[in-house]
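Database export, one record per block. Field names are fixed; values are copied verbatim from the stored entry.
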Amino acid sequence: MTDTRPETPAPDYTALFAQALQESPTQDAPVLRPVPAQVSPAGLPQGIVRVADTAAPTALPVGHEVLAELRSQASMKIGEAAGADASMTEQDRRQRGQSIIRQVVSEWATKYAASGSDLTPQQERAVREAVFDELFRAGRLQPLLDDPNVENIIIYGDKVRVDYADRPTRTWDPIAKTDRDLINLINHLARMQGQGERALTPATPNLNLRLADGSRLAASAYVTPRPSIVIRRHRTRGQGLNDLVRWGTIDASLAHFLTAAVKGRKNIIVVGSQGVGKTSLLRAMAREIPSTERVGTLESEYELHLHEDPEGPEVVAYEGRESNGERGADGKLQGELTLSDLFPQLLRMSLRRVIVGEVRSKEVVPMLHAMNEGEGGSMATLHARSPQLSIERLATLCLEAGIGMTEALAYRLIAQAVDFVVYVRLVDETELVDHGGKPGRKHRFVSHVMEITGIGEGGRPSHQMVFAPREQDGRREPRAVPHGNISQSCLEDLVRAGLNRTVLQRPWGSWGAPLETMMPL
């Protein structure tokens, strides 16, 4: 391990240890928080009783200067052990590292005990965990990555903001002492994930990678005043449509409809703004694909993780690759593999369906062709502010693909390829408090399912709402409920796939209770 600390006179760490343990932890001291119970992406269910957590958070009894010294000592001994055993695997190295860290921290605790006070078992364990995180995990980021309620971690230099699923956004302690240390931490994470070709350097100032827990990290430096990092958590990886029903994202009627749409091999685009849960819904829908089918997934960073589902279909998973920062004679970035580069090879893999994690660029054209020419049943996500605007967004991406496509051809391709657009909405009320002092929560739900019915007026795709909000007789439901609009040919396909027609005849769907929000929707 490379020690990136500035060259300053070594402080008296024994004295720092003694001083820190004699003082009460301040409110802003770094804290290793106990991991809360898992909650849904929609937040805590209404009516849930919060049980007080009797396990108090364990504050780190020392500053990060002491942790840096302990880290340096342990790193040196771990390096010596690895050098003496060339056959040591990464798992062996971690196990040996735990033993060495325990020894190093124990020796420090013994030195401190000689000064008149002892470390409590909880304090010693907290220090051991913090040193292990520095060497083998994500350092000061690790408590946030361990918290299942964290949705986004936003870092700008020493400023850290954390978005939660069940409470308002909060600020956090700095993740690193300096900007250089922060960049080193991000590159350390890239190496730990086996993505050594990805690094944040002056030649490659932008970095995108996936973390071990499935989170997606995006970072920029050298082109921004200070390093800027965003980590988007994927808190739901093994959940299906029934879990989304339980969380309030969809109701049982819509879950039944989406199941039939997947099994009926309809091409579906999941649409919404950033962070609303598009990937979670797409992943849940993909779990309805029969296990006998062969499916290809295409992502810039693995987020769907369908290839890790032992009960799912046979999956051929492709992941894009960033460049090494150099350009060839043709001006193209060396080593880069975009989704559009990978698409032709993916289509040679004898697949029955193609799933694109997120359509952002010119991969839209081969995706639409795959939807149009194959058996159907392909899916993707797309950023758009409404279901109707998703059509314009797809058309714009087609025109920007640089293949000379006209607007009329783009609309025609969309109309022939896409069967349904599913729109996911997010209502964030975590900053609001009701009259009783109860904080608001985040509401994620599907609000529209739009069918593309062909070419309509002006050459644009025609559409109709199969599910949408409803307001009638003084009652309003902002979530998706059946509207009874669906083409006869599509309905027959879905009935053959198992759809119960009566589901589309329920004007208020299967919602058991109205959506409880601070402000009316």
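Remark 1: Confidence is low (pLDDT under 50) at residues 1-11, 13-58.
Remark 2: DSSP finds 14 helices and 17 strands in the chain.
End of record.
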